[in-house]
């Protein structure tokens, strides 16, 4: 199924149907999944210690973690929060900053914050799910399935 502009979505089995409500990954999200599942770290694209600007991660009140360079937001993770869990909904990286490992670094910072806050994790974002499959040190954050009432 293509659209007139040549866009062909990639279907994936997600009960939540994120990101477009119909169960399809767009090309940009598909690229992010590839980025965090890559086996090799692309050191050439990592910022050097001498870089003028550092990437900073901020937890924002509106349910987002944002990665910024200076005043520019380059990536974000959207989430919904309850008393004991964080439901991760989506990860985005600005097109000009893709392929540099920013998504993986942001996700690791988010998961570290979730752990520090003593929360459990529920994942509806395929990018974060792929990261978790390759980083077993965060497996303890996953919320165990609750029995049906």
What can be said about this structure in brief?
With 149 residues, this protein is an alpha+beta fold.
Number of strands: 7
* Strand arrangement across the biggest beta sheet: 3-4-5-6-7
Query: What share of the residues does DSSP label as strand, in percent?
Result: 25-35%
Spell the H/E element sequence: EEHEEEEHEH
- Main sheet: strands, sense, barrel: 5 strands, mixed
Overall geometry comes to: globular
Low-confidence region ranges: 39-45
Rg for CA atoms: 16 Å
- Per DSSP, the total helix count is 3
Helix share bin: 10-25%
How would you sum up this structure, described in words?
The structure is a single chain. With 149 residues, the chain is of the alpha+beta class. It has helices spanning 27-37, 102-116, 126-133, and strands at residues 10-11, 24-25, 55-60, 64-69, 72-81, 85-93, 120-123. The protein has a five-stranded mixed sheet with strand order 3-4-5-6-7. Strands 1-2 form a two-stranded antiparallel sheet. Strand 5 (72-81) and strand 6 (85-93) form a beta hairpin. The longest helix is centred in the last third of the chain and has 15 residues, at 102-116. Mean pLDDT is 77; it is low at 39-45.
């Amino acid at each position: 199924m293509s659209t007139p502009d040549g866009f062909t979505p990639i279907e994936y089995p997600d009960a939540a149907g994120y990101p477009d409500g119909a169960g399809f990954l767009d090309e940009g999200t598909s690229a992010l999944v590839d980025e965090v599942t890559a086996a090799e770290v692309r050191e050439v694209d990592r910022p050097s210690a001498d870089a003028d600007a550092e990437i900073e991660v901020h937890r924002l009140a509106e349910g987002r973690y944002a990665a910024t360079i200076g005043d520019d937001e380059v990536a974000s993770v959207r989430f919904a929060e309850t008393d004991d869990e964080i439901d991760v909904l989506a990860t985005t990286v600005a097109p000009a900053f893709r392929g540099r490992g920013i998504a993986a670094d942001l996700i690791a910072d988010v998961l570290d914050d979730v752990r520090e806050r003593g929360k459990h994790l529920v994942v509806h974002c395929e990018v974060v799910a792929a990261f978790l499959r390759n980083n077993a040190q965060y497996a303890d954050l996953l919320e165990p399935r609750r029995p049906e009432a």
